[in-house]
Amino acid sequence: MAQLELQLYDYNEWANGQIFNRLKELPKDVYRQEVQSVFSSISHVLAHVYLSDLGWIEVFSGKSMNYSLKLQKQLKEEKVSKGIEEMEAMFLKLSERYKLFLSKMENSDKPLVIENPNGDLMETSVFEQVLHVVNHGTYHRGNITAMLRQMGYASIPTDYGLYLYLKQMGNNLE
C-alpha cells in the first residue's frame, strides 16, 4: 500500500512545484498582493498548507495533535513572512521528509489514534491521512488559482489526471 501513498505524495509535490514555477513567472508583488478571498494573499495560503503538512508529518512521527497545532500557531507569522524561493525550499525539504517516512512504512493501514484538542479520539490510518494531506493541498491550490484569476493572471493545471498522463508519457515531472 505504501506505493500508492508515495505516488499520491509525489503528485502533491509535483502540483506544488507547478504552482511555485508559475508564481515565479509572475511579478514578485503577486505573491503578497492582498485580495478579497479565503486568504488575504497567496503567501498566506502557502504558509497555511506548509504548516498543515508539517503538522501531519509530526503526528505521523508520534507527536500529539496538540503539539502539532501549537507548532503551527507558533510558526505561522514566520512562515508567512518567507519569500517565495525560501517557501519553495521549505516545501521541498518537507517533501523529502514525507517521502522518507512513507518509503520506510510497512503498513500504512495500521490504526493511528489521534487525540483531538477537545479530547475525543479519532481512529484513522496514515493512508487515510496522506489522502487528507493531498486533498487539502489540492483544495488550496484551487484557492491560489482563483486568487490569480482575480488578479488578472492565469494559473497552471495541477490536476491528478494530468500528472498521471505526463508520467505515463515519460515526461520529466521535475
Automatic annotation (TrEMBL):
One of its GO terms (molecular function) is metal ion binding. It comes from the Bacteria. A divalent metal cation binds at H48, H136, H140. The keyword Methyltransferase does not apply. Transmembrane segments: none annotated. Keywords: Metal-binding. Pfam families: DinB. Belongs to the DinB family. PANTHER family: PROTEIN DINB, SLR1116 PROTEIN. This is Damage-inducible protein DinB. It comes from Lentibacillus amyloliquefaciens.
